Amino acid sequence: MTYLLFTIGLAMLFFGGEWLVRGASSVARHFHLSPMVIGLTIVGFGTSAPELLVSLQAAWEGKPEISIGNVVGSNIANILLILGVSAVIAPLVVDARKIWRDLAFMLAATFVLWGMLLGTEITRLYGAVLFVGLLIFLGSTFFFGKVEPEEDQPEENQLKAWGFTIGGLIVLVIGARLLVDSAIVIATTFGISEAVIGLTIVAVGTSLPELATSIIAAFRKQTEIAVGNVVGSNVFNIFGILGITALVSPIPVDPRFGAIDMPVAAAVAVGLAVLAFTLRGLPRLAGVGLLVAYGGYLWAMT
Prior knowledge:
The protein is an all-alpha fold and 302 residues long. Helix content is 81%, strand content 3%.
């Protein structure tokens, strides 16, 4: 039964990602928005739903380290693992002029969070600051994200497009849950330690929707959605998830996050910005480098 659930979870990730990319692309065309904007908002925020649920549940259960670790770990995995795999599948060519503002938001969010984690608590005031940052990000993204409509572009059924988009998100979240739960059972059966399970299956588990979506987008040559999905998810993880969680309940901070994990997250974010501007995206070789770096990170953590 466990293996059946694992297979169903994989299938749901594939179909959910396919439907989400198809629907989101149609929505972007209808509202004359660039695919990057849809990747940054609907896709990026929607695929972060598992992180939001995990962080809120952890805060309510008095496990603050999970709330912070979930966000920081997911942001690292989003760049190194998800963009790495996507770039290996298809080079992610992105015009730096289209993404510089969004990368700047991601870098700002990362360093603001790092500063907060050098203290002892993410207070409700800090949570409000983070949430305001999310609103500013959304406003600027939609304001500057309009594009000229394509001539002779046939109008697509928007009810169907939104159905694909929302349905894809729901299927992704359910599929990720099934896959993670069954994978933990399988790994335990084979005697794999809880530490390794936590650093791999659980850490990557909440990022599975982003992984599936970006891989499907890469296969469909929708590189702006693939990159925008990750950048938008990273911004939402910090501004949205930690902002909302801190507003619900102030989050005590373990000193290790500011001393160890955030320097890694900051270095990874800066590295992505440098690659995007110097190489105009992520070629396959850069994707391989990101995957090697993620393997090194996991090895160091164990």
